[in-house]
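lol forgot to send this yesterday, sorry. C-alpha cells for the thing we talked abt
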C-alpha cells in the first residue's frame, strides 16, 4: 500500500511516516476520531497526534468535522473529529472501484436501463451477498444470540470491512454494527442497491428488522446499522421495507 502522507525522505523520517500511517489506519479501523481518541489508542501525546493530523489534512487524507451525535445532545460545542476523505480511502486499496462501477453500469444497460436496469443491479447485489453468506451464517450460528452482532462484526472484518459492534446510545435498546471501511464505497455511491442488499441480508441473518443509520457511500464516516434488542422476527413486509434503509435518511 502506498504510504499515506508520503513526503520526500529529507522532509519526513521513516518513523514519522510510519506513525502517520498508524494514525490514518486507526481512523479507518475505528471511524471518525478525536485527537484524544487517537492519542489513547496509539499511546501518543495529543500534541504528536495533532501534528500528524495537520499533515494528513494538508494532504487531503483526512478532514475535520463536527462529531455526529445520536440521541440527546450535551451542552457545549461538539468535539472535532477527523474522518478519512475519499483520497484517504483510496490509499487503502480501493483500486477495483472503477471496475465495479463499469461492470454494474454494463448490467444496468444490458437490462434496458430505467427500472429494469435498477432491478438487474439489485438482483446482482443480492446474489453477491448470498455468495458470501455461508461464512457469516456459520459465524453467528456458532455463538449465543446475544453474541451474534459481535460475531458478525468479526466476520465482516475478515472480509475487509473493519467492523465493530457496540451498545447503541440511550434511549435506543440494541446495538450498533459499525463498518469503518467499505471496499466498494465508490460503487455503492453510484449504486445504492449494494447497501440495500446488505441491509436486507443483515435482517435475514439476524432474524430482526435492522435500520441503516449512515453509510460511507453517502458521505458519513462509517456505515452504521442499528440492531434492536428483543425485537420479534421480522415479517416479509419488514424485510421488503429494509431495502430502503441503504439510502442515507439524512
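and heres what i got for the seq, position by position
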Amino acid at each position: 500500500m502506498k504510504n499515506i502522507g508520503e513526503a520526500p525522505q529529507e522532509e519526513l523520517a521513516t518513523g514519522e511516516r510510519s506513525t502517520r500511517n498508524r494514525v490514518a489506519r486507526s481512523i479507518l479501523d475505528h471511524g471518525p476520531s478525536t485527537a484524544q481518541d487517537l492519542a489513547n489508542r496509539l499511546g501518543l501525546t495529543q500534541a504528536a497526534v495533532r501534528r500528524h493530523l495537520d499533515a494528513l489534512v494538508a494532504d487531503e487524507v483526512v478532514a475535520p468535522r463536527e462529531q455526529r451525535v445520536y440521541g440527546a445532545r450535551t451542552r457545549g460545542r461538539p468535539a472535532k473529529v477527523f474522518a478519512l476523505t475519499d483520497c484517504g480511502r483510496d490509499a487503502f486499496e480501493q483500486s477495483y472501484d472503477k471496475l465495479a462501477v463499469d461492470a454494474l453500469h454494463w448490467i444496468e444497460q444490458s437490462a434496458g436501463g430505467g427500472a429494469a436496469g435498477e432491478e438487474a443491479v439489485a438482483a446482482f447485489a443480492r446474489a453477491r451477498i448470498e455468495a458470501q453468506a455461508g461464512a457469516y451464517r456459520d459465524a453467528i450460528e456458532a455463538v449465543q444470540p446475544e453474541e451474534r452482532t459481535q460475531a458478525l462484526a468479526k466476520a465482516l472484518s475478515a472480509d475487509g470491512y473493519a467492523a465493530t459492534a457496540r451498545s447503541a446510545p440511550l434511549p435506543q435498546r440494541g446495538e450498533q454494527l459499525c463498518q469503518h471501511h467499505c471496499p466498494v464505497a465508490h460503487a455503492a455511491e453510484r449504486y445504492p442497491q449494494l447497501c440495500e442488499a446488505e441491509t436486507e441480508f443483515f435482517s435475514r441473518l439476524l432474524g430482526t428488522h435492522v435500520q441503516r443509520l449512515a453509510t460511507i457511500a453517502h458521505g458519513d464516516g462509517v456505515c452504521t446499522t442499528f440492531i434492536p434488542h428483543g425485537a420479534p422476527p421480522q415479517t416479509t413486509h419488514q424485510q421488503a421495507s429494509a431495502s430502503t434503509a441503504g439510502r442515507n435518511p439524512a
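DSSP finds eleven helices and six strands in the chain. anyway ping me if u want another try
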